Each structure stands twice: as C-alpha cells, then as structure tokens.
C-alpha cells in the first residue's frame, strides 16, 4: 500500500500544481474584484459626474472571458505537467513521435505563457495607476474641510480628464448626499477592490513565471528521456540479453 502511494505521488507535478492553484486563485480574485470595481466606477461617473463610459462595460465581459481562458490554460498546463512527470513520462514518451510532440507542446505553451506574462504586467501597470487615482480621491474625501462640508471637492482643475460634455458644475461635489455617494459608497469601496485586484494580478504574474520554470524543466525532461531511450536502444543492439527487461523502462 505504501509503495502504491509513493508511486502515485511521484506522478504528481507538485510545482505545476502549486502554480495552477496560484493562477486560479489570482484569476478568480482578479475577475471578481475588477468586475465589482468597474461596476462601482460606472455608477460613480453616472450618478456623481453625470456621464457614462461605455468601454468600461465592455471591459467587464473581457474580464470574465479572459479569466475563463486563463483557468483553462492553467488546467491544460497541469495536464501537460502530469504527462511529463515520473513513470507517466516513461510510458507516454516512449515513441519518437510522442517525444517530438511533447517537446513542441512545451515550446508552444512556453511562448503563450511568456506573452501572457507581459500582458499581465501591462494590466498591473494599469491597476497601479487606477489605484493611485482612487487613493487621491480618498485623500480628498479625508480632508477635514471636506468632511465637515465647509468646502467642495473640486475637480475643475482636472477638466482635461473629463469628456467635453461634462459641465463645470458637475465637477464640483458640494451637496452632502453627493459627497456621501462619491466618498463612502463608491471611492472607498472601489479603492479596496482595485487594491485586491492589484495583489491578485501580482499573484497571477508569479504563477506564470512559475509555469515558465516548470515548462522549461518539462522540456528538458522530455529531451533527456529521448537521449535515455536512444542509449537504451543502443544497449539492446550491443547486448540482446537486456531486451528481456525492456518492459521495466
């Protein structure tokens, strides 16, 4: 029983499994927090500044589809890791064509993972900027003069960041209910969502780097297994008595 468990454990790609858990956890948190954060941003722009950004609504669907694709990629890489680990590798990659196919698969997934790493780094940069902006908004809300409603939260000096259709009076938040909407209902919650999304984005990037290391190792294992097979076949040619033990490899 112990030998069977040990043999089963040697077939598990532990490094790829850890990377898959990190990837799925990061992607799940990223999808949920970005969807919620973008929804709060849409409501904030609509109810406080009275304009709508249609492209943010399109981003919500992109987040869902992209997260599903990342999860599918993670499970495909986990399956590839299982095929290139332990005794499974020795059975699957016996034939020359199987070894070539395995090396090509590892190379293709390495390219895809490498590109996705850069995509997530760009997303991280976007999230850093977004989180910084919402942190500035929260600092404005935290000023004592704004808390006691003695002054307005004025964005007129940033009118170049708003669409031309936005009126100057809409860039000044003076009423108590508008300040509550802007600060408590939207900015405070959205900032927390974007901070979580930024942390999850870092986790996904780490998992992709981990995947790259695992794929490089798997590629080397298949290549080394091919050399081992060639050496074994050479031994069979020079010493036919070893042919009887071939099934052990």
From TrEMBL:
Transmembrane segment boundaries: 12-35, 55-83, 104-137, 192-213
A cellular component annotation (GO) from this entry: plasma membrane
Protein's UniProt name: Neuronal membrane glycoprotein M6-b
One Gene Ontology biological process: neuron projection development
Keyword entries, A-Z: Membrane, Transmembrane, Transmembrane helix
InterPro entries given in the database record: Myelin_PLP
Species in which this protein is naturally found: Parnassius mnemosyne (clouded apollo)
């Amino acid at each position: 029983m112990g030998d069977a468990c040990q043999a089963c454990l040697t077939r598990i790609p532990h490094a790829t499994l850890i990377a898959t858990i990190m990837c799925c956890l990061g992607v799940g948190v990223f999808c949920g927090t970005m969807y919620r954060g973008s929804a709060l941003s849409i409501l904030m722009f609509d109810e406080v500044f009275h304009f709508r950004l249609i492209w943010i609504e399109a981003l919500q669907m992109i987040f869902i589809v992209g997260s599903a694709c990342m999860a599918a990629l993670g499970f495909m890489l986990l399956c590839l890791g299982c095929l290139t680990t332990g005794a499974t590798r020795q059975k699957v990659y016996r034939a020359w064509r199987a070894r070539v196919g395995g090396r090509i698969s590892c190379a293709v997934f390495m390219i895809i993972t490498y590109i996705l790493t850069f995509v997530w780094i760009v997303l991280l940069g976007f999230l850093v900027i977004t989180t910084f902006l919402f942190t500035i908004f929260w600092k404005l809300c935290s000023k004592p003069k704004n808390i006691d409603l003695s002054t307005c939260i004025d964005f007129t000096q940033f009118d170049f960041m708003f669409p031309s259709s936005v009126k100057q009076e809409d860039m000044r938040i003076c009423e108590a209910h508008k300040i509550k909407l802007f600060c408590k209902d939207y900015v405070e919650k959205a900032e927390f969502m974007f901070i979580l999304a930024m942390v999850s984005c870092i986790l996904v990037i780490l998992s992709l780097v981990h995947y790259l290391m695992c794929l490089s190792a798997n590629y080397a294992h298949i290549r080394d297994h091919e050399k081992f097979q060639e050496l074994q076949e050479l031994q069979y040619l020079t010493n036919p008595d070893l042919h009887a033990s071939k099934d052990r490899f």
